[in-house]
Amino acid sequence: MRMLLLVALCLGIAYGLRLYWEYRELHPSTDDAYVQAHVIDIAARVSGPVVAVHVVENDYVEAGQALFEIDPSTFAAAVDSARARYDMAAQDTGASDAEVSVARSTLEERKVTLARARRNLERATTLAASNLIAEAAFDDAQATAAEAEAAVASARADLRRAESEFGARGDQNARVRAAAAALTAAELELSFTRVVAPVSGWISNCDLRGGAMVIAERPQFSIVQDGQWWVEANFKETELSHMRPGQPARITLDMYPDVELNGEVESLGAGSGAVFSLLPPENATGNWVKVTQRFPVRIRLAPRHDDPDNLRPLRVGASATVTVDVEP
């Protein structure tokens, strides 16, 4: 009887271990997982002294909210200078337009003179054929017509030169467009003195103070973006054989052990973490030891409904435990 009980106990333990093993095969789990979100570095696009800082560490900001301001006086002066150059270009264009009009009027006037000279030459030619005018008068008529033709050619050349120097009319003129572009650039730089939040989220690593000199494109602090969260879980390569995008996952956080979050597999990493490390392993050195590799798996978190008052917000880098259901 005791032998039967012992055998039954052994069979029960073996069956339980088999069920546990099958469950682990179909529900791989890892505690090498961390909460992630987009972290945006905030930098000014222009350099200058800070005159106002509107946020402090851990503040929540909305997209478009002012973060800090740089002294705008230098950039405002640049805008005034660019606007003056634009006005001067517009004035020069007006003067050039007047020159073109004068040159065109001169050409028309000389065309009229040429037409009169040609008619006089035709009459002189007819009279000279009948010997009714002196030869000197006929020569004078020929010379006057030739001078009128030369004057028309000169006026036409002056008109082409004036039109070439003037270019297109109005806002399409090259000098006006160049001055307008310079004015736009100066106004943009002035607007860049007011730095606003590109996304909604929490301020992090902020120690900026008024009076500090900021350098363009140098990060001053970061914003942890609110709205898109995921967990990066590092699974062993032996646990990935049945894992596919779209499979459901359960996530628990160390900081909120009584909260279980839902998610799904979004993607599987194309390489192990060791491959992208600063010093990747050199397995061809001769001192090779086989180590089971881990691959990052991105778990997209489902929208939360367990914390309507946001008393338990997610935090970047928080440790998590992820279990994926890979049942076919």
Instruction: Please write the string of helix (H) and strand (E) elements.
Output: HEEEEHHHEEEEEEEE
Question: What is the number of helical segments per DSSP (H or I, 4+ residues)?
Answer: 4
CATH architecture of the largest domain: Beta Barrel
Largest sheet properties: 6 strands, antiparallel, barrel
Structural class: alpha+beta
* CATH-defined topology of the largest domain: Elongation Factor Tu (Ef-tu), domain 3
Using the coordinates above, name the CATH class of the largest domain.
Mainly Beta
**Global outline:** elongated
Average of the residue pLDDT scores = 81
Tally of individual domains: 2
Strand order of the largest sheet: 1-8-11-10-9-12
CATH-defined superfamily of the largest domain? Efflux pump adaptor protein, beta barrel domain
Beta-strand portion reads: 25-35%
**Radius of gyration, in angstroms, nearest whole number:** 42 Å
Give structural notes:
The protein has 328 residues and is of the alpha+beta class. It has two domains: 28-70 and 200-324, Elongation Factor Tu (Ef-tu), domain 3 (Beta Barrel); 74-189, Methane Monooxygenase Hydroxylase, Chain G, domain 1. Helix content is 40%, strand content 26%. The strands form two sheets. Strands 1-8-11-10-9-12 form a six-stranded antiparallel barrel. A four-stranded antiparallel β-sheet has the order 5-4-2-7, with no helix packed on it. Strand 9 and strand 10 (260-268) form a beta hairpin. The protein is elongated. The relative contact order is 0.19.
